[in-house]
């Protein structure tokens, strides 16, 4: 799975998102 978080700011939701989707996935954050 690949996730793009737009408007991530300081990453408050990004870190829990990474933990949720797992190691085989990629999470990108753009502010």
Tags for this entry?
31 residues; two-stranded parallel ribbon; alpha+beta; 2 strands; flat
How are the secondary structure elements laid out?
Layout: E1 2-6, H1 14-21, E2 26-30
* Proportion of helical residues: 25-40%
Going across the major beta sheet, what is the strand order?
Answer: 1-2
Question: Using DSSP, what is the number of strands?
Answer: 2
Q: SSE string, helix = H, strand = E?
A: EHE
**Into which percentage range does the β-strand content fall?**
25-35%
Mean pLDDT: 94
- The general outline is flat
Number of helices: 1
Verbal overview:
This protein has one domain (1-31). α1 (14-21) links the parallel β1 (2-6) and β2. It is built from one helix and two strands. The radius of gyration is 9 Å and the shape is flat. It has one helix at residues 14-21; strands spanning 2-6, 26-30. By secondary structure, it is of the alpha+beta class.
Task: Give a brief rundown of this model.
This protein has 31 residues and is α+β, with helices and mostly antiparallel strands. It contains one helix and two strands; from the N terminus they run βαβ. The mean pLDDT is 94.
């Amino acid at each position: 799975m690949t996730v793009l978080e737009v408007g991530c700011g300081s990453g408050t939701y990004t870190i829990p998102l990474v933990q949720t989707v797992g190691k085989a996935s990629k999470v990108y954050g753009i502010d």
